[in-house]
Design a protein that fits this description.
About 45% of the residues lie in helices and about 15% in strands. The relative contact order is 0.12. The chain is α/β, with parallel strands linked by helices. A hairpin with a 2-residue loop joins β7 and β8. The protein has 18 helices and ten strands. The chain has three domains: about 180 residues, Rossmann fold (3-Layer(aba) Sandwich), CATH 3.40.50; about 130 residues, no CATH class; about 100 residues, no CATH class.
Length: about 425
């Protein structure tokens, strides 16, 4: 492969198809999508994930040597057959699988396409209706499922709330995973900015990729407007918006839905640079839920859980905070293991005898193995949730070792403190 692969990611209905088509117009780019779905969607490849609530979110532990070899072989054969030097892949579920992709392609980079969450919710519902009609049977969700939207599908009948949960899950997981990867690994592109200045923003993307803008890509610039496209045009999807693409939530979302979604979408929308709806008070939420026939207690409880989790992750792994605070935790610090990190231990057998255990932690293409075969890391890792101190996790005799262990992983970016 001549260049590191580029992955176009983002919540469904956020402009990823438009971006893939625009990049695919370049004579040096091989743009792939469905052709590579089997590396992410075929659960037969991941039997160890069966029965897990989050089996849709693949991580570094799912990138086995066999799968890595198979994936690289498929990509290299496709590039060789095409005669092109740059691979671009777009699969919407990769927004929740950044760690997995980087474990397979350590030099991969990402173009993240995002859009106002409220508009995306409307478009996700269009997708659900289109797929439901196409498949001729009821469909609860538009995009591929995730743990949060599946919970919503089991709890509420309103499709816009389910779509809001899906958008939240995609955005928050990819936001954290991309930040861990580093700023040089990704370019974030807002759909609204692309529509406002398509040539300038596409120039930005091409510079990030390392290729010059090509005259054949002018078709994508012309096609990038606020109006729905026609079949066969650049970026066309079979679930096009009805009317203008931007600010469609003003006409398509009921006041009650906007009230219920506001506290959920506020955090990630602000992180992406969007203004969000005013924060409702409890009585407004109660009234909206009553009007829609929803269980307000279930919604508020899940809102609290999700927003607290995101706030905890953002605080624990704030880059400025991590750089300025000492690696060794204070006595009252509550360690947090970064979201998506995998950990455990394995035994090496030498000359057929003498198994030696090694503990490890891994996220994306970065990993750390402990030299001490008796490391307590696998014992405490599962409890590093920011709720308890190390002194509450281990006895006095193991406290210093636990502090040294967390200090080392703090310096490597795997552990943060609250």
């Amino acid at each position: 492969m001549n260049r590191s692969p580029i992955f176009v990611i983002g919540p469904p209905r956020g402009g990823t198809t438009l971006m893939l088509d625009a990049l695919g117009l370049h004579p040096e780019v091989l743009a792939l999508g469905a052709e590579l779905h089997r590396f992410h969607h075929d659960l037969a490849k991941f039997p160890h994930r069966h029965g897990e609530d989050d089996h849709f979110r693949l991580t570094a532990r799912d990138a086995t040597p066999e799968l890595i070899a198979e994936y690289h072989d498929a990509v290299n054969r496709a590039l060789a057959a095409s005669g092109k030097g740059q691979l671009v892949v777009k699969i919407s579920t990769l927004s929740q699988q950044v760690d997995y992709v980087l474990a397979i392609f350590p030099d991969a980079r990402f173009v993240q396409c995002v859009r106002d969450g409220r508009d995306t919710v409307c478009s996700m519902e269009d997708l659900r209706l289109a797929l439901q009609a196409e498949q001729d049977h009821p469909r609860l969700l538009g995009p591929a499922p995730d743990p949060f939207s599946l919970w919503a599908a089991e709890t509420f009948e309103h499709p816009h709330l389910r779509a809001g949960c899906a958008w939240y899950y995609h955005v928050t997981r990819s936001f954290l995973d991309l930040r861990f990867a580093g700023a040089d690994k990704f370019l974030r592109l807002r759909y609204e900015d692309l529509v406002a200045a398509p040539r300038e923003r596409l120039d930005d993307v091409m510079r990030f990729i390392g290729l010059p803008f090509h005259p054949t890509q002018e078709a994508a610039v012309t096609a990038t407007t606020n109006e729905p496209g026609a079949p066969g045009t650049i970026g066309f999807s079979h679930s096009q918006a009805r009317g203008a693409r931007l600010n469609r939530h003003v006409r398509d979302l009921s006041p009650e839905v906007r009230v219920l979604l506001a506290p959920l979408l506020a955090g990630p929308m602000q992180m992406l640079g969007y203004a969000c709806d005013a924060m409702p008070d409890f009585r407004d939420i109660q009234a909206a839920a009553h009007n829609l026939g929803l269980d307000v207690d279930a919604w508020i409880a899940r809102l609290a859980k999700e927003t607290a989790w995101l706030e905890k992750q953002i605080r624990a792994f704030d880059p400025v905070k991590v750089l300025r605070e000492p690696d060794l935790p204070a006595d009252d610090a509550k360690p947090v293991l970064i979201d998506g990190a995998t950990y455990g231990c394995h035994a090496d057998t030498r000359d057929g005898v003498g198994a030696v255990s090694h503990a490890w932690v891994r996220k994306q293409n970065r990993s750390f193995a402990f030299a001490d075969p008796g490391s307590i890391w696998p014992v405490i890792a599962g409890n590093l949730n920011g709720n308890v101190t190390l002194a509450e996790l281990v006895g006095p005799e193991a406290l210093e070792a636990a502090k040294q262990l967390c200090g080392r992983l703090h310096g490597l970016g795997f552990v943060g403190y609250l």
